[in-house]
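Working notes for the structural subgroup meeting. M.R. asked for a predicted model of this chain before we commit to crystallization trials. I am recording the input and output together here so anyone reviewing the notebook later can reproduce the run.

Input as submitted:
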Amino acid sequence: MAPDTPVRAARSSSGPSSSRSRSRGRAARPSPSLTVRHGIGFARNPCASLLRLYAEAGTVASVGTRRRPFVHLFGPGANAFVFANSGLFRWREAFDLLVPVNGETALIVSDGADHRRRRRLVQPAFHHRRVAGYVARIAANTDAALEAWAPGRTLDAYAELRAVIRRSTVEVLFGDRLAADSEVIGGRLQVALAAIDRNFVLQMMLRSFPNPYMRRVAASRAQVARRVDEEAERRLAEGGEHDDVLAMLLAARDEDGTGLTRQELQDQVISLISAGYDTTSAAMAWAVHALLAHPDAAERARREVAEVVGDRPVQAADLPALTYLDGVVNETLRLFPPAVLSARVPVEDFTYAGHRIPAGAMVFYSPFVTHRMPEVWPQAGRFRPERWDPSCELYRPATPSTFLPFGGGPHRCIGSTLATVEIKTMLACLLRRTRLRLVSTAATPTSVTAMRPRGGLPVRVL
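Returned structure, recorded in token form:
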């Protein structure tokens, strides 16, 4: 789906009023015909299928079976309801398919008190001031990679930049020794990432019985976990010489003096690495594609970088002045949020927009659909970085329910600031040092957990 793909206005259903009452509202029962159409369409193109589902069914769409309905809640009202009622939902069941990569105790699969505790211990590592300190390394790694981008060369920008992001993520969060192994770590994690990138039905089948494929996934992740253990043990033996996220995680303590367990430490490190480079590299690929597909936007961004940065390396102090580039990043995340949809499992029946949704159902909300609603975003299917400038007629203030590329509520992505800073820094480096041309302007999204261009992003260096 290209950045300028128009989006058809959708039929809306009743308003966003909601309740936890069992007696109010009609049951959100799956439609067999809608289930078949959506299932076939989702397997072929999840993004296009979700837009069609909203256009056909409105703000509440139920597919699946009566025994296990999949209920899609679309639009800002639905997003606000889900975020405001976090206690109504469980995460663990909804994100169970991510466990082979992230682990049993990762933030994204944690609920309730466990989630609050783990997030409290991890959160300080992603403070804005700390993230600003990562810019120099991110810029240096990007510039070093771009040295090999010789004019006339054709390359996969997605794969190339993904490798840079992986190294930078491991380096700034967990130190030089793990960064030296970033390619090996990435290769091992990719086995697990490939497993959760498969069709949902196939994933559930593979998880339901012992098989060689899932044993290979587990073995690959276990190799990364052992490497994390080795580094943690070396850090503890060396004392307090390091100032990075791993050092903070090792030192983090609750009020009663307890810290993260060995498994918790492994899972936080591995999930931060995998999410940090998988989703960020997907968004980075779309940003590059969007700029190359819109030469006027690319030139405007290039001029801004030249005026602010000049010939020296990109620095943290430059980023606030790159306001148009901010718009490029935000517009990319609006059109191409890495997580196309997110899931929750309600712990009790509730009513939303006149529909009664049972406990145990799989409830989805979709940043992708919200971001492409013309009633929310004027010219919703168009790549218009200027819309983020308050003086532009397209400007609409972003709210947590209308702009949610990193989710929302208590489970909002903990690395969102790092991701946006990394994308912005790398784009500034690219614009300063290279000129590229798309091999093909067509790009089809694939994956709903880290939406990226299918087949990568072939470009020619000019």
